[in-house]
């Protein structure tokens, strides 16, 4: 049987992580959050005093970044430098540079290759280019969206800090300039505005199980 690959794409704060982790648990698949890989690369570059515009140095770092799946947790999740990533990747310092680090096609090519390797035996993978670039052959592709207000509100609750609306909008603008977000043609759009996490998961599970049932093995 071919590996089940679920692609979850969408902008920051659309509810991707909660949904992708929930789906992975239900489907008994690893959960791969590709944003963490771009964030970890950014943090490493900043720590090593590598200029976020230095493509060659970033490419080298992207190749050597220690990334694997922690198979001891449910669902299996990304481990970076041997540990599960935490709040060190959501600091304003990292978020202020991640769009620039992610803008270089050569850097992306290295991480995309590594993401494909991680999904080799099946995965629920979340990001912005999963259905279109990383896993164009995915079993099912979901494009999550939500209104700008709802997305900023979710991030504020998630991070427990004051209004994140401006920071989120700035990152969206920067991402849109350097790495325009285009959903795959065959992605199913799911607007999560007004939906609880449980309702979103239920809708997505219905979409995924229908697709899996309809696919020849
Ligand atoms: O998903 P998250 O908001 O954690 O992603 C952090 C940043 O990583 C994004 O703002 C974007 O610059 C970059 N990213 C990307 N491609 C992905 C995932 C994330 O360029 N597949």
SSE blueprint and pairings:
Blueprint: E1 5-9, H1 16-27, E2 31-33, H2 34-47, H3 55-64, E3 67-70, E4 77-80, H4 92-102, H5 105-118, E5 123-127, H6 130-134, E6 140-145, H7 148-159, H8 165-178, E7 188-191, H9 197-214
Parallel strand pairs: 1-5, 1-6, 2-5, 6-7
Antiparallel strand pairs: 3-4
Helix pairs in contact: 1-9, 2-4, 3-5, 4-8, 7-8
Bound molecules: cytidine-5'-monophosphate.
Cytidine-5'-monophosphate binds at residues 12, 34-35, 38-39, 98-99, 102, 127-129, 171, 175, 179.
Structural account:
- The structure is a single chain.
- By secondary structure, this protein is of the alpha/beta class.
- It is built from 9 helices and 7 strands.
- The protein has helices at 16-27, 34-47, 55-64, 92-102, 105-118, 130-134, 148-159, 165-178, 197-214; strands spanning 5-9, 31-33, 67-70, 77-80, 123-127, 140-145, 188-191.
- The strands form 2 sheets. A 5-stranded parallel β-sheet has the order 2-5-1-6-7. The protein has a two-stranded antiparallel ribbon with strand order 3-4.
- A hairpin with a 6-residue loop joins strand 3 (67-70) and strand 4.
- It is globular, with a radius of gyration of 17 Å.
- The N and C termini lie close together (5 Å).
- The protein binds cytidine-5'-monophosphate (C5P).
- The site of cytidine-5'-monophosphate has 14 residues, from helix 2, helix 4 and helix 8.
């Amino acid at each position: 049987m071919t590996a089940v690959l679920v692609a979850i794409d969408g902008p920051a704060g659309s509810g991707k992580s909660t949904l992708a982790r929930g789906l992975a648990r239900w489907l008994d698949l690893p959960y791969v959050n590709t944003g963490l890989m771009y964030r970890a690369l950014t943090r490493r570059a900043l720590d090593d005093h590598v200029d976020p515009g230095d493509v060659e140095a970033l490419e080298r770092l992207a190749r050597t970044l220690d990334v694997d799946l922690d198979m001891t947790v449910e669902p299996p999740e990304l481990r970076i430098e041997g540990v599960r990533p935490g709040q060190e990747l959501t600091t304003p310092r990292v978020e202020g540079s991640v769009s620039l680090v992610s803008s270089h096609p050569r850097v992306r090519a290295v991480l995309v290759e590594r993401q494909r390797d991680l999904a080799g035996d099946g995965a629920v993978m979340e990001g912005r280019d999963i259905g279109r670039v990383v896993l164009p052959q995915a079993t099912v592709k979901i494009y999550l969206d939500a209104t700008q207000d709802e997305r900023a509100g979710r991030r504020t609750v998630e991070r427990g800090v004051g209004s994140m609306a401006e920071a989120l909008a700035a990152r969206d603008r920067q991402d849109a300039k350097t790495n325009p977000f285009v959903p795959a043609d065959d992605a199913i759009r799911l607007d999560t505005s007004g939906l609880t996490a449980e309702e979103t998961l239920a809708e997505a599970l219905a979409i995924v199980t229908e697709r899996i049932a309809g696919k020849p093995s």
